[in-house]
Amino acid sequence: MEEVNRYRQQLDLVLEAAGFDLWENDLGDGRVTRRADKVLGELGYRDGDVATCIDGIFSLVHPDDVEALRDALQRHVDGSAAQYRAEFRLRAKSGEWIWYANFGRIVDRDGAARRLLGVTFNIDSSKRRELELSRMNARLAEQNAQLEKLNATLRELATSDPLTGIANRRKLLAVGERELQRALRLGHPLSLLIVDIDDFKQVNDTWGHLNGDRMIRAVAALCAGSVRASVDTAGRIGGEEFAIVLPEIGNHDARALAERLRGAIRAQPVALDGGAVMCRTVSIGVATLADGCASFIDLLGRADAALYAAKSSGKDCVRVLDGAPPPRRRDDEGAPLAAD
What we know:
This protein is an alpha+beta fold. It has helices at residues 2-18, 37-42, 54-58, 63-77, 124-159, 169-186, 200-207, 209-225, 251-266, 296-312, and strands at residues 20-26, 31-34, 84-91, 97-110, 113-122, 190-197, 233-238, 241-247, 270-271, 277-278, 282-288, 318-320. The longest helix is centred in the middle third of the chain and has 36 residues, at 124-159.
């Protein structure tokens, strides 16, 4: 017995030095056969303040932690977990919640009586640091998401025409060059439409620039609505002129699409100030990737020449470039060299 007592004294000393508090429960009748008195003392309780049963101890556990604590205990009792581990908050006598951890194991199974032996130790400081780090990471993730959303908005603004919302010239040139190089590499077709509102200056001169903007937005919407989502790209080159990049589309299909678009725009009424309604025509130039096109600017020049032919033919029509590519009418950034 003396040796057993000495062993217990040594064990208590080691546990105290490590900050552990030894406890023992009888799972058969629910009695706490050895309480974690050091922990209870830390929490401000005296003898008799806490019932000497498992349910009495559970009465100190934070309501949000009770289920997880019971589940951890049950997994060990039914054999699905080799050890009992849990983290939870205990209510101090002052009302403060303190984080603790349990570690235990069933040490014998004598019929229905089972002894669960374990230790409890204070993890409040580390847990609070962990939770604060988790909150900081959550805030950082939220800020990163907001930043990514802002960057996406900025990218969209940088590639979108502010008046119409469709692609701007910068994006058209980038997409066009990428698609042209892909078409050259794979030997696939690629077509380009240039759409220009006929006699647009008369709209501005007669109805004013705000109504001219309404006309531009209406035509832009019809151009965007005529293309395949995530495949074709419709954009505004500048002024009253638009372009549509058509990957995997050959000459015949490109011309058919241009004719449908021309008819749709001609039939589209645009409401102006004062209750007036106006329809407008467009001229469309069509070009398809051919020998001699080494860059998108080359293809743009061919489509521009086709548009010039449509304008020269009386407007409100579609023209497709035939023969060798003409001299460029645009600079290397796609800007017109002369008024259309």
